[in-house]
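Look over both lines:
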Amino acid sequence: MARQVIYTFKGQTKTIPFSYDIHHDLYEAAAEAEGIDLKKFLAMEQQIALTSKKGAKAEKEFRKSEFARFGFTSIKFVREDDEI
């Protein structure tokens, strides 16, 4: 089964195909599907990764808060047992 990502953007739930050949992670795939440019976000995320301790929550919290600011409330992989 091909991977799929289900996400909610500004109150509307959508499902898109996902491939690691095209995207680094599911967040980037969802952002591309909505036409969001992540250049500045990725640069800042890289800076946080370089300055925070390995395994620290800083990167995860930054990603979570920024995607919420973009309008995403949920982003996850579709499991085989999930109903779309």
